[in-house]
Hints:
With about 675 residues, the protein is of the alpha+beta class.
Amino acid sequence: GGEGGSSSSSSATTTLVQGDPYVTLNLDIEGEEEEGFSISSEQTLILASRGDGSLGSKPVVCDPNKDKSKRQRTVTGSVFDIYASGTDETWRLYTFPSEVELECPYPKDVNHTATQIKLTNSEFKGVIRMAVVSNCTTGVAKHCHGPSGLPLPEDQVSTPSFAAALDAYSSVVLKGGNVDYDIDNETNTLSLRLIYESYSLNKESSSESVVPLLLALPHHIAAMSSQYSTEGNNNNIAGGHRSMLGMQVPIAATSIDLSLPLPSVLWGDERELNSDSSKLVRKALLDEADYDLTKQWRLGVGDPYNAGKLNARIARLAMIASQLDESEIADSFLDKLEKYQALWLSGESPNPLIYDQDMGGIVSCGCLFDSCQGKCTPHCNNAGPRGKGGGGCPNLGPGAFAAGLDFGNGYYNDHHFHYGYHLYAAAVLARFRPSWAKKHREQIMLLVRDVANPSNQDKYFPQFRHMDFYAGHSWAGGIFRSFANGRNQESTSEAVNCWYAITLLGDALEDEQLKTVGMTLLASEVHGAQTYWQLVRNQTGYDPIFETNGVTGILWSNLAQFQTWFGLYEWAVNGIQMLPFTPISEYLLRPDWIRQQIDSFGKACEKSPICTGDGWSPLVCMALSIADQEKGLTCAQHLPKKEFSDQTAEGNGNSWTNTLHFIESRPATL
């Protein structure tokens, strides 16, 4: 990495922009420095100067294999190659506006690999840029499929097209960007543009935007408009290099333009049930017409995640009852839902949602639950934000205990999962009880702003806390936490549920801007999930060995795992990418992926007492109905009703009525 000198007169600044092939450092080194700019590594680095980068110029190499007396001590130029022997990477380094002298990196002796490249210039005011030319230079690295045929830096007498592109665009620097989105109602598609701002180091003024070089990920390539077709277009440049997700493809453009399809069904009642289906679902609804929450949840004593799931369960029952014209049952559920959802929006829950001024968001205070082993009224053994007793808000405390309470809500973990269920319940109430929604609109919008605030002018909440528009999906963590592999996300389907709920909320409130924000997040998340989590074999960019799993459990910035946070079970890795099943699930779950996974998912669940006893097996039946509706119904008819108990980890958010409604509302063909 670059190091600033000991003198306060020296400085180094950088701008980080996703999709930038280069790392850019603006350096201002003045006077004699004990330590100027340097690049250090625990692996042996081989440095070669390409002079001014002219094609065909013979590199001057710092060759560690030469006798010490014949080695280069320094090399001079404005274009250099750095080969990292341990990771098989070749980096290209550029300097602007002038040439520099670099000290050659040699290991201390044969027992050491650490090396360091130093800038020997005592004064330098300019820019140093670095880019990966290849991370499979010789093909020996573990992530390479085999020898790539690319030679070592000292033997490169001709420049491959990707390296030539890096040279050609090395003077164009990205300084930022923004996201633009628009919905075409006629084609039912979303246009999503990642717009980049750039300037040229070769121009006197840095204000004029020029065309930069960008790196596109697999999900970009799959959804790019025709201007980035893979054949016959100058925007496409051969080459690139492998990433964990697949090839990073270079394009010359001022934006990455994506076109994404939108769902044809939203609320679910747009598609009528036939007579037989209506009878089947109605019978289930009548059996569950008196469903209510247990006392703990009626009082709001618990965590917002499970509370949201239970409220959303009632909201689904109300929606289905309305579709079947069972108005009395629908009103009964809506009456209950008004009270239970208001607890969380009004701050009346013993575990209230509060505004955190430090990080700018809505967090749960925390509940140290106690029911005296069932002998007393469920309550929280902490005072809360306004109480006089001890305990306060345990979620806001330091350490692992606080970070784990309420599934990490106080540390901004999974907010879109948690609040998505509450927002779905609020959306259903907004549709059928507009006066309730009007009364609680401000509190509802606080939850929206916490997870999906579209404005960069909002001083109380960050913009799009969870969504990563370049990566094409959201992250579970809503603030930075120092995991070794960066940010992560497990349940893409629960992220989808949140954006779906915001879309419905915008529709119910007749707020087109809110609906568009929801649709944009929804379409982006679904496309990302179908690319990086739903792994249809021979169609992904992942390593073939990982691809055989068929599904990603947790995706990190630098790691993909076939597991969940709560176990290595195969049924869990599949199921966590499907729940909750709602009308939007048919938009999320690719039929070809379901057909591929359903057999192993079902068999793994059948063998597990946890899966069959904790409410997960209905997911198998609903997923099966996407591939074969009749088989899905047969599967569901063998389910024990305990699978829908609100005392189970997964069954608490689902119902027998919802399960049958999803199965019976499958379209004729998918």
